[in-house]
Structure to design on (58 residues):
């Protein structure tokens, strides 16, 4: 395997992990507890703020 191939796979893995964390943190707190997802305190507020900021008004 080439070094470039390994780097690409690593970047994709990190990207997918970040998407998964974002999705899990955007769930309702009750759902997070039901599935055993322990989000860091404040993560939910940060996710909501980011959603509002990036959604914008059109």
């Amino acid at each position: 395997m080439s070094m470039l191939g390994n780097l690409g796979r690593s970047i994709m893995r990190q990207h997918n992990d970040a998407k998964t964390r974002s999705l899990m943190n955007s769930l309702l707190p009750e759902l997070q507890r039901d599935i055993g997802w322990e989000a860091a305190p404040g993560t939910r507020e940060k996710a909501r703020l980011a959603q509002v900021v990036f959604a914008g008004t059109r």
